[in-house]
Design brief:
Length: 789
């Protein structure tokens, strides 16, 4: 939805001249025209010979952001660099109705929600509700998906179902991370950063053509490090630190306008310490007091050693046999392995300790046929995904009792899709499209109980109980159409209306306890009695789907001094997957049970608005400008049906998780030229999020009240080669919860904690009680020096 001026002002607030790179053999993601600095109004854009709008590929073809009938926010690489954005989670503060957070107890697993739709449970078997794309390759799992920002051309955030063109698991929206393309001239860029908590970042990128062969080669290396925001008082390790290495490499070949090939690969290694949580209550048995610093922790679990390694590559090929015809192939492979010790109770003793392994691997292939015949544009394609995901973790409880959970999921997806746009008149366009998806899921789930560690984590004994030994398959098929109408009275105004559907396939809960399955088929035999059908039904859950109606208006007005974009939408959310786990006693053994059902049906109404206004020009000298911009998102999201484990409709007592009703941001910025080729850009941004819940049922102390964050940036561009920036994040040092764990007994209707006759809280798992929070980053100030040659 957002046009170029709004995106810049929201994140940076300054404005500068727009530049483009030629897009010979333009690829869908990597080859879109790059606007290195978005602008709103002013002579600089006119002098550049363009209209100042970012070109995006939200509909898998190059279009001005102003013309796309989709709610979309796009950030260029230069904007992100000038604003001091560190990773993709920074975008949520200035993007309406979007939540992007680091998942609980991890350093690089992403939790994403857009317009109330998403998924925060990262274990194998649960699928994301927001699609993450790296150079048009879909990342099937959320591990290693908190993408650090370096060597990036742009990031696009698409809001609303994108099931037609992007397919599986984009029912909330999609985030497209597009790395920088290689230009025709040799380049060398060096960026160094130093700041609070001993933050020390370095990024070196370079590229060059290889003679006159048509080949170009480039790459980037990043070293990102930071001390901890706090300390683990038991292990002595820094808590919330960063220890990251990353690299990207690209080989391109261009044969004029007729052929383009891009082979790229990337590697990341994150050896940051385990992220320890902050207990919100004293120990119920140990009486361990609550720590005064929310970034300190006491967790004693140190094995396995915390480590995240991820790598992958893609081959993009584009052929143009005729001026109106383009053929594309996108081949992708990715693999990631995570080892993480998560101390749920955040105490030295073993109470609820969870060592875990995540292993993911995927191969994808997409082919596209594009037709551009003047007033008629068409895209048709075929998509294939073969993915494997394995999660293994122990849940270690008092008395050496350990519950092993092993979940291994194989996914095969095939989809055919198409989308066509007809310009009925120069002002009126109609688009229709659809996608048919076949999703096959094969799952293995094991739940065993051991005395001591399981064999995956160094144990040598046999299990004392087998709670689940399950293998099952399920297949899902769905047609997800999309249609839109656009009306453009002139080049600076677009009105549109759209209708779209999206779906997310079902699966099997890897934490399910087969012996706890009730008699679901009525034959008098339960899961404990070995009824395989009851176990299958208890562990399985079906697809969920969203149907969305949207209308919007985008404009560039008053000689582009005002840019704005507004949208209103209504969504019907059905068969909502609600994953969860509860502490329980099965066969006299304390354990936990995964219970995932299609419990919900909901409706979501909302509005989004973004605007950027050039308030004044020439105040203190020629070329200076004052900009005022803002974003706002409002959601009225309500469950109309929510069946809990008692079989009762508790919709009135449930709320969308990780979804504030109101998100907003405002930016005041000043730009002034300095010398022949320099400039100073100063800006300050205040972002706001209303209160939100971690889970559907309210969780006192863990749910986050409304809060605001204040950021500021001062960038001195010395000339075309050198710049210095000073950036401040969360300047008021606000403490705010982004995720957490709760294993206390609650009233299922009100969320109030259940207590003993003496008034003490009652744990549902472990003995000391688990109510553990993880927090967003505290105040950070850092300076960056950039040199480009």
């Amino acid at each position: 939805m957002l046009n170029a001026g709004v995106a810049l002002a929201a994140l940076l607030g300054g404005s500068a001249s727009a530049q483009t790179q030629p897009a010979a053999g333009a690829a869908d993601a990597a080859q879109a025209t790059q606007t290195t600095q978005a602008t709103q109004a002013g002579p600089a854009a006119d002098e550049a010979g363009i209209d100042g709008d970012i070109v995006v590929t939200a509909r898998r073809r190059e279009e001005r952001l102003l013309d796309v009938p989709i709610a979309i926010t796009a950030f260029t690489g230069a904007q992100l660099e000038a604003s001091g954005a560190l990773d993709v989670t920074d975008l949520a503060a200035v993007t309406p109705n979007v939540t992007l957070e680091t998942s609980r107890g991890t350093n690089s697993t992403l939790t994403a929600f857009i317009r109330g739709v998403g998924q925060q449970d990262p274990v194998a078997g649960f699928e994301a509700g927001v699609g993450i794309y790296l150079d048009d390759v879909y990342l099937n799992r959320p591990q290693a998906a908190v993408l650090d920002i370096y060597d990036v051309e742009r990031i696009e955030v698409l809001r609303g179902p994108q099931g037609t063109l992007y397919g599986r698991n984009t029912i909330g929206g999609a985030v497209k991370y597009v790395t920088r393309r290689i230009g025709s001239d040799p380049t060398l860029s060096i960026r160094g950063t130093y700041g609070s908590y001993d933050q020390a970042d370095g990024v070196i990128s370079a590229s060059t053509p290889i003679g006159d062969t048509g080949f170009r080669i480039g790459g980037a290396v990043a070293r990102l490090s930071r001390g901890g925001f706090g300390t683990n008082l038991t292990t002595g390790q820094d808590n919330y630190n960063k220890d990251f290495w990353g690299a990207r490499g690209t080989l391109q070949y261009e044969a004029g306008d007729s052929a383009f090939f891009r082979l790229s690969g990337d590697y990341t290694k994150d050896d940051s310490n385990p992220r320890g949580g902050h207990r919100l209550i004293p120990g119920l048995v140990s009486r361990t007091p609550v720590l005064s610093d929310v970034f300190d922790s006491r967790g004693g679990l140190v094995a396995p050693k915390q480590s995240v390694e991820a790598y992958g590559g893609s081959l993009f090929a584009e052929l143009k046999p005729a001026a109106y015809l383009t053929l594309r192939s996108i081949t992708g492979y990715r693999k990631d392995d995570s080892a993480t010790p998560i101390d749920f109770d955040a105490l030295p003793a073993v109470d609820v300790d969870v060592p875990a392994f995540y292993n993911n691997e995927q191969f994808s292939q997409e082919v596209q046929l594009l037709v551009d015949a003047g007033p008629f544009n068409m895209l048709a394609g075929l998509y294939y995904l073969d993915a494997k995901a394995r999660t293994v973790f122990d849940v270690r409880l008092p008395g050496t009792v350990t519950a092993l959970t092993f979940g291994d999921v194989r996914t095969n997806t095939v989809a055919v899709f198409g989308d066509a746009t007809l310009d009925v008149t120069p002002m009126l366009s109609v688009s229709v499209g659809g996608r048919y998806t076949w999703d096959d899921r094969m799952s293995q789930v094991q739940r065993n109980v051991y005395l001591g560690a399981s064999p995956f984590f160094g144990g040598t004994t046999a299990p004392i109980a087998r709670q689940t030994d399950f293998r099952g398959t399920a297949s899902f098929a769905k047609f997800t159409p999309r249609a839109s109408v656009s009306f453009k009275p002139d080049a600076n105004n677009t009105l549109y209306a759209s209708w779209s559907k999206g779906f997310k396939g079902g699966g099997f809960d890897p934490r399910g306890v087969g012996t706890a399955a009730p008699d679901l088929n009525g034959n008098g035999i339960t899961g404990a009695g070995g009824d395989r059908q009851d176990i299958y039904n208890f562990l399985s859950f079906g697809p969920e789907s969203v149907e969305s109606y949207e209308a919007g208006y985008k404009a560039s007005l008053f000689d582009r001094r005002l840019t704005l974009a507004v949208a209103g939408f209504h969504s019907k959310y059905t068969d909502v997957q609600v994953p969860g786990s509860v502490g329980a006693t099965v066969g006299g053994i304390q354990t936990f049970i995964g219970i995932t059902t299609n419990a919900g049906r909901a409706r979501i109404n909302g509005v989004e608005g973004e605007a950027n206004l050039t308030v004044a020009e020439g105040i203190a000298g020629t070329g200076d400008r004052v900009n005022l911009s803002g974003t706002i998102g409002y959601l009225d999201a309500k469950y109309t049906r929510f069946i809990d484990s008692r079989g009762i409709n508790v919709a009135a007592n449930r709320r969308f998780q990780n979804t504030p009703d109101l998100t907003a941001s405002g930016t005041l910025a000043y730009h002034v030229p300095v010398g022949a080729a320099g400039a100073i850009d100063a800006s300050t941004t205040l972002s706001y999020r209303s209160d939100s819940q971690q889970f559907e049922l309210r969780t006192p102390l863990l749910d986050q009240p409304a809060y605001a964050l204040l950021d500021a940036n001062l960038v001195y561009t010395i000339d075309a080669r050198f710049s210095i920036g000073v950036h401040g994040k969360n300047l008021t040092n606000k403490r705010y919860v982004v995720s957490g764990y709760n294993f206390l007994l609650q009233n299922p209707d009100t969320g109030d904690y259940l207590r003993t006759a003496a008034g003490a809280l009652r744990p549902s798992l472990g003995s000391d009680g688990v109510l553990t929070a993880y927090y967003g980053n505290p105040r950070q100030v850092f300076a960056t020096l950039t040199a480009k040659f």
